[in-house]
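G., the chain you wanted modeled:
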Amino acid sequence: MSTKVQWQWLDDSGWKDYDSSFSIKLEAAYRKGSKRVDVDTVRFVDLGMTNAEAISNFTNLKEKDKKFVLGVQRRKDDHTKRRAVMRMETKAVDFFNDTVFAYLPSVQGKKLKSKESDMIDAIKNAGGDVHNKLTRKVDFLIVNASEVASTWPPAKELTDAENLGIDIVSEEFITKSIMAGSQVDHTLHEVKIPTKAPTAAAGDLEGPPPGSKRSADDDEEDSSKGKGKGKAVKKTKSDLKKSDAIFSSNLVGGSEWMGVCSYPADDEYFNFTLKVDSVKGDAVLGTIEWPTLSAKTKFKGTLKGNDFTFQEYEAIAGEDEVQLPADYTGKLTDDKTIAGDLGDKASKATFKLKLTALPPPPSSSSSSSSSSSTPVDPLYLKLDTKYSGVCKSISPFLLKIDTRWVLARWGTDLPYEASRRDASFLSR
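Predicted structure as tokens:
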């Protein structure tokens, strides 16, 4: 019988679990005697104190919880802003007992990162064994799903594992099992070996990126290459003007944009939603919601052509979870995408937003029924289309739109109506 460990932090409303991967990381650091573990670029957990020292920082702890408090989560810019951190142990079955895993550096990268080392410790704590080479004794080969999907040709160890009858699974199989306290269905986390090279992303295609200006040399090169049987292709004036297009028509009051802020150096990713309240001239005002941080802020920005710069300047909720002010420099790369980076160049943080909602068009009065209008469709998902991708968890997914309908009535005093339903995620 082993123990299941879950690390938690004290929110204003009660104790909240750290996600499984960070809980594993924190447990590994605790066992090694580490004094500090970064949560993200803004916060860290201070483990360099005794239980008595930790609880002395707080007056709102319940008596039954005090003995489990072993650390303090602090803001990096202000150590006085803090949250209690608790380590909870429960009895758990050795659910990986007699199960053998392989965690190969040649598949994970040149060498195991601290994250993988922590995962190995978690497997052993749950009764499992980890080998550094493939044999018939190995039950599972653990891989990074996104790395496998993006690497061509596939690593030799992947085909070797397949030939030996070893199941290839993502790291999420481990984290989900640890969270459940039992071995979950591994088939939900199987990773398939790619059978062809991954399709190049837009930024990897030959030629200048969308929105960039072309030179005369570029045009001459295109015309010399030609297309088909030796026919030269000369760019038209309309093609050349596309690079000068303005994509800001959808950045309007009432629009919503959803995306991710990425800190690759720390392997941290935060979902956020930007809601535009008003656009007056080149001034843009609105709010930003950070669901995983339980935070909400106000922002003010400037829109000039396709350039959109903005600053978070005031916290509405979760002021301890966000660092303000925060500056963003972005560009509309098309009418549904904003991408850019944060003002803190040292962090190399970037963000990308996609348009998810537009305000409904104003209802027409009977006196203007003869005027023509073009409906604004707030939903950019088409019937019977499929979208595939990779969740950061990491889990491959396939999204299929089963049913979609939009009812719009124009030329009357009836408001624009839109309904959408039955969008389902199908595992594969």
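Confidence is low (pLDDT under 50) at residues 201-233, 237-242, 364-380, 406-428.

Shout if anything looks off.
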